[in-house]
């Protein structure tokens, strides 16, 4: 097998939660370009259909399954649909996530719970539902999208629940990696720095000094710069990598 063959995803089935826009979409396109069948698991059906049109042009089977990742029934139904239409899942990318700025003194319990239900609980539930099947088959790769916010405290904006949820995602990654290492299932995370997507679209200009000028590389990332790392972690190219958190931040966390 040549080194480039190790990156091939031909014959694989990959699920990307929140794969209809932003980082998730770039990852879905990247895995499709490497030959994988793709499942978009997100809520906005119109947006998922748009992304599907782009994916099918790449010549791979692709489906969209309307899924609220916070809902275990939706996740179980999604896995059943995928099994019927494409076969068992080889790769799960837990990418769906939300973020908002929040002052620790005034944040409501409801907002805390809403964020954790998507950013952390859903990663746990999807890993459990899909991981069950992967452990039985003795193979699979799970990639969780964490954040540099799980490693450092961002400024000037406060968003402690977001950072706490991402720190927990990193630890969840390591815990499951250890538990499933002998079952042939690898679990890794990617911790991106500031990536220009809808999650914070109105804020990039306001916080340009902190979010861009203070990055050693002096720019934001594009979603397409995250996708190759996901391909590395999804494919045979990373066959001895598990429990890692890959920082992709243009050097932001260096100082
Ligand atoms: P976007 O806001 O552009 O996209 C978020 C995606 O998540 C959408 O596809 C959305 O689809 C999906 N989503 C949200 N809630 C749910 C839900 N309950 N069920 C299913 N899907 C859901 O965000 P990004 O692409 O920027 O972020 C993607 C991931 O990367 C997130 O986990 C984020 O925290 C992380 N990240 C982002 C960074 C950045 O600077 N952009 C930096 C570091 C990490 P729909 O609404 O259709 O359900």
UniProtKB/TrEMBL annotation:
Primary enzyme class: oxidoreductase
InterPro entries according to UniProt: KR_dom, NAD(P)-bd_dom_sf, Sc_DH/Rdtase_CS, SDR_fam
SUPFAM superfamilies registered for this protein in UniProt: NAD(P)-binding Rossmann-fold domains
Ketoreductase domain segment(s): 12-151
Keywords for the protein's UniProt record, in alphabetical order: Oxidoreductase
Domain of life: Bacteria
Recorded GO MF terms: oxidoreductase activity
EC number(s) stated in the UniProt entry for this protein: 1.1.1.-
Stated family: Belongs to the short-chain dehydrogenases/reductases (SDR) family.
This protein's name: SDR family NAD(P)-dependent oxidoreductase
Organism, scientific name: Kaistia terrae
């Amino acid at each position: 097998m040549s080194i480039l063959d190790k990156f091939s995803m031909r014959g694989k089935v990959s699920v990307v939660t929140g794969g209809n826009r932003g980082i998730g979409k770039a990852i879905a396109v990247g895995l499709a370009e490497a030959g994988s069948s793709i499942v978009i698991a997100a809520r906005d059906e119109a947006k998922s259909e748009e992304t599907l049109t782009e994916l099918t042009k790449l010549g791979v089977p692709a489906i969209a399954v309307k899924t609220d990742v916070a809902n275990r029934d939706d996740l179980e139904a999604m896995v059943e649909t995928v099994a019927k239409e494409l076969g068992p899942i080889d790769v799960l990318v837990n990418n769906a996530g939300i973020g908002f700025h929040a002052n620790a003194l005034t944040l409501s319990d409801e907002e805390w719970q809403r964020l954790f239900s998507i950013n952390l609980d859903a990663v746990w539930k999807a890993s459990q539902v899909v991981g069950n099947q992967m452990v039985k088959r003795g193979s699979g790769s799970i990639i969780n999208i964490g954040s540099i916010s799980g490693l450092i405290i961002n400024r000037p904006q406060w968003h402690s629940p977001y950072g706490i949820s991402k720190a927990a995602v990193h630890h969840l990654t390591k815990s499951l990696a250890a538990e499933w290492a002998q079952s042939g299932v690898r679990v890794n995370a990617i911790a991106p720095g500031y990536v220009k997507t809808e999650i914070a679209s109105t804020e990039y200009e306001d916080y340009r000094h902190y979010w861009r000028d203070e990055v050693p590389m002096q720019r934001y990332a594009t979603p397409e710069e995250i996708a190759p790392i996901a391909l590395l972690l999804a494919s045979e190219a990373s066959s001895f990598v598990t429990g890692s958190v890959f920082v992709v931040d243009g050097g932001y966390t260096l100082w």
